[in-house]
Design brief:
By secondary structure, this protein is an all-alpha fold. The chain has 9 helices and no strands.
């Protein structure tokens, strides 16, 4: 969506007097999900307001009432936005690290798992990563090394400087390794 457009005072008035359209489109048509980046109510409302502005900028009074038109524009825009966010979420691999550097099991429902069973200690995490590193080559191995450094307190930027690569490379390495480790029976057995 092009977000750089100017509204006339009349169009601004349409937006200001119809902000509730955004709220009701979210309530009636969208599933708010804080666990997906960009899908919290506040994010959806902000995006919906942009679509409401788009509706005001493209509104033709001879065709329909503004609230009717705006509801369709905002709904369609938010559905497209949600699809994009969910597609992005598919590419994320979540490997959770606890407060003390412990590796959390991630996939398990933490509500049903005893906290002492769902993580391993800082040193055990480093040992487990080191033991599995030998089984991998290339990017996956680099990702395991980067995970260990991250657990030790290094930032992604600091790790990137150590390897003389952009930080985005380090993030990709970690993502690739986390994905492989989630399907590695020897690694998963070491978690318990």
């Amino acid at each position: 969506m092009q977000k750089n457009f100017r509204l006339t005072p009349e169009q601004q008035y349409l937006v200001e007097t119809n902000l509730s359209v955004v709220h009701w489109v979210i309530v009636e048509n969208i599933h708010v999900n804080r666990t997906i980046y960009g899908m919290a109510y506040e994010d959806l409302y902000q995006e919906g307001c942009l679509w409401l502005c788009k509706a005001a900028a493209t509104y033709d009074a001879s065709l329909s009432l503004f609230p009717t038109y705006a509801k369709k524009v905002v709904r369609n825009g938010l559905i497209s936005y949600c699809r994009r966010q969910c597609d992005k979420e598919k590419h994320f691999v979540h490997l959770d690290v606890g407060d003390n550097g412990e590796l959390l099991t991630g996939e398990l429902d933490r509500c049903t798992v005893n906290r002492s069973d769902s993580h391993i200690s800082f040193l055990e995490t480093l040992d487990l990563l080191e033991s599995r590193k030998a089984a991998y080559r290339g990017i996956s191995r680099l990702g395991i090394e980067a995970m260990a450094l991250k657990i030790r307190g290094y930032s992604i930027t600091e790790i990137a400087a150590l390897y003389d690569v952009p930080p985005s490379h380090v993030g990709a390495w970690i993502s690739r390794s986390a994905q492989k480790l989630r399907n590695d029976p020897a690694f998963l057995a070491g978690l318990y």
